[in-house]
## 1
Amino acid sequence: MQSYLGFDWPASKTVDYDKFRDANAFRTNSTCQAPQVACESAGTVQSTITFDEHELIHAYLSPSGRAPALFEEGVAVVLTWRSMVCNTPANAAAPELSWADAIRIGDPNTDGRIYLSGARLVAHLLRRYDPHLFMRLYRALPRTATPELVSDQMMSIYGKSGDELWANAVADAVANADCVPAWPCARDALPLDGSAAHLAASCAGIDHDQRTFRLTATSNLFLSATADTLELFACDPDAPPPPVSFFPIWDGPERSGLINLGPGNYFLDFFNYPTDLALSIPDGSPAGTDCAALQPLPLSPSQYPIQVTSPLSSGDWFVAFQIGSPARMLTVSNDETTDLLLCPSCDFTSASCRAIPKAMPWLDVDLEQVVYARMRGRDMKIALP
Ligand SMILES: [Zn+2]
């Protein structure tokens, strides 16, 4: 977080963290003001949450001074990935409270809309400019700054007035209402050589954990995992969201996936249980728009079920598998594609092809050697029956 934002941190400084057992213990013993459910004061966090990202951001920024609440709360909200405020669908609309009114009101306990307005403005500043510029603004502003002073500082740091940046922020967030995933994207990247990363559960009381990986070019990615749930997200807030159906929750704990992703940083979110993840970029290309160019992906029995996801919103996506010999009975699911065709070659007019139309969501089929699939739609799955 420090390298992302570039905040000051004295060498010997630590954060004090008072973790309360429950809401009752918090109400009775914390020094936070009602109606707060957590707070930070002078670098000390008080919370019932084991890892309270929002209050930790406040604690990390406390040596940098006390900026107006619009910025202090805005940055804490927008760097808390999956916070309730970020995921509110209403976020797509312009906030009711303008940046200048939020500065004039000052206290978020008086008007909670300061959180929404702050998140909107700070998200824009962090996404569209060097995040270190935000810390320059933060350090330059006293808690009691007027809108005029804030706008002057914005003009000198960003080259735009408060009203200009606000108008841009309001327009910006309509296209992308999510928070900046700075925490989950800050972890060391997972290897892409197929070696299994054995991820032990991190701190007790944290529901989810995340690990990142980096793709330098558009790639097919093969993933095998033992994880109860697994969700894929993009780190770059401007990246198109990856398919959400990559690993359906109803599959067993051991499963594989084949997906095609553009270059960039991504992260996988999973329940905070011991989890194995192995990522690799297959030799050749087992999936693509040109069937004749594919190199079949060898599949061993331990790799079923495998979920294959098409990156296309329309059009044909081809996948080739090396099933081996003798023939093996497999269940092929077609929950989402409009049309799925399995053939022994790239000739999809051959009489040997098997069609699995959407009206027939799954079929047990004998498959042998190399199988070519033509998908028209989002995903398909091959499983042991
Ligand atoms: Zn706060």
## 2
Amino acid sequence: MDARHRVLTTGDLVATENAFFAATGSPSAPRCAASGSGEAQSSHTHSLALDAVPVHLAPPHRRTPMERPPDVNSKPLSPDARREALARLADEELDVLVIGGGVVGAGSALDAVTRGLKVGLVEARDYASGTSSRSSKLFHGGLRYLEQFNFALVFEALRERALVLNTLCPHLARPVPFIYPLEKPIDRAYVGLGIGVYDVMGAGRGVPAHMKHLSRKKTMESFPSGKRSTIRGAIRFYEGQVDDARHTMMLARTAADYGALCANSTRVTGFLREGDRVVGVTAQDLESGNEVQIRAREVINAAGVWTDEIQRMVGGRGQFQVRASKGIHIVVPRNRINSATGIITRTEKSLLFIIPWGSHWIIGTTDTDWNLDLAHPAASRTDIDYVLDQANKLLADPLTREDVVGVYAGLRPLLSGESESTSKLSREHAVTSPVRGLTMIAGGKYTTYRVMAKDAVDAAAHGLEQLVPPSCTERVLLAGADGYLGDHNARHLIAERSKLHVSKIEHLLGRYGSLISELLDLVAERPELGEPLATAPEYLRVEAYYAASHEGALHLEDVLTRRTRISIETPDRGDAAAAEVAELIAPVLGWDDQHVAREIEHYRARVKAERDSQTQQDDHTADAARLGAPDVRVGARDAG
Ligand SMILES: Cc1cc2nc3c(=O)[nH]c(=O)nc-3n(C[C@H](O)[C@H](O)[C@H](O)COP(=O)(O)OP(=O)(O)OC[C@H]3O[C@@H](n4cnc5c(N)ncnc54)[C@H](O)[C@@H]3O)c2cc1C
């Protein structure tokens, strides 16, 4: 098949038919018309099996907490590693270069490098700074796909959920119980049937099986904040949860562990061509301003909502377009809602999630078209009021704007085809090669990132015209997974040895897994790093330091918004923590006093602009207010 016309889509069109939710009286409003299985399509590609792949590959840096000395080479996303990666990206020809450090790009880099390929990954801003830090943070099968009777897609997503929870990163992902409150007598039959099917399909897939029907009394016991006049009972079931920004960064870190050359703050500005073939990219290091040419036999574009922009750099129209749909979440303190589980309910437009998140709840989301700035989608007052109104339908003591501690907005990269040939693309994700040497991957959802990555690398491998082993990522543990369970069992011992409280050890294990040893080594050297941050005591000082030394954070904003979630978890949105964190990371990043002051100023301007935008009535005024803050990455605004 001609590579230029090869489109690997995923699954079958399905009818946007009503199902059990619709039967409850709620209008069915599926966002995507179709979906399907990427695995089923992999036969389009020519990647050939070579050797058997070892079971449960783990990055080569595992150490037992407190027992082995610090290893200077175990810093794959350190500032030095970034500098070295950029130098090598300029010097060496790669097999595969991936554009975009969201979950799909980072996943693709990991997929490619664990097939034995020479891989680069460039991200314009920070890892996960696009949609991949702004999701609902659930690995889920997708109840809404059941409404569309798309069992294949649900099954695939549930399998991915199980992989992530059980094997790939049990340190980062965990099962979370939810209830679906029932409001009408007929709900129990229809919702129960739907969730029952979901439950059976998901049985043994990473979460406790067997959904439970709850009477009204039991529901109110579990959800005392629920509105008695509305709720007649509930069905309880489980989903998977992950901190999306940390998970995506860990994918990049694991890829770097395996040898991928990873550079954030590196924006692709154009393509290198030889004849009609793409042979690499031009890029700008946004930290130094330097231009770099990166040569690669195959380039994968995984730029999410920026896909069309990259397509324009190649010229011509792509075989699909990506449109952005905005979804916002609000964050409220945990004590504002008394419930033992998360809550999922149907709204007029989609689903509303009330999700437990440490000492907070995350509540969302919305679903509206967005044609404004892609890098900084803004939540308007209207968006926030909408989410509050929807949540308050279930709450006895209504939430108000004053309860809102944090707000974030993200953009779903939705496929849209516009011509005859592209009209079949209303699926979950699609892979296409518009010109030789370039593969485009877009659409999908966080839960199925691994399948998307595999499909993208399969397509790129086809262009390499050599034998390439099949994807092995279903057996590649993310950094920190190997040894995590043992460390978790030994948490009291680790607490005793490190002199940190066991609750802190649990906190660290849930964010770093067995890499906890690296943080504890730092604390052993500098005990003050074991103290909590004065203004965000849920985090230890060492976490801020480590974000810069080991996790690729290059700016204060990276630490406050993605390595930690201080920006949405503290009422001042990290304003006070900014100075403390900047001082901690300054020595790692080589900042002088002026640089520290500039970073703090940037961060505070960002917080102010976000707050301003959230008081605006509509998207246009909110966008204008958000753009009032300059971007900390020089030239990064152009990326949006
Ligand atoms: C509100 C909301 C809730 C969601 N909830 C869920 C959920 O609970 N579960 C689920 O499974 N899915 C969920 N999703 C979907 C999921 O978050 C996305 O599908 C996924 O994160 C997209 O990842 P991506 O890698 O394609 O895009 P992105 O994360 O946006 O990554 C693209 C990257 O490309 C970079 N880039 C752009 N241009 C350039 C350039 N020129 N050079 C270099 N890099 C560039 C960007 O900076 C960006 O980091 C949700 C989405 C939204 C919006």
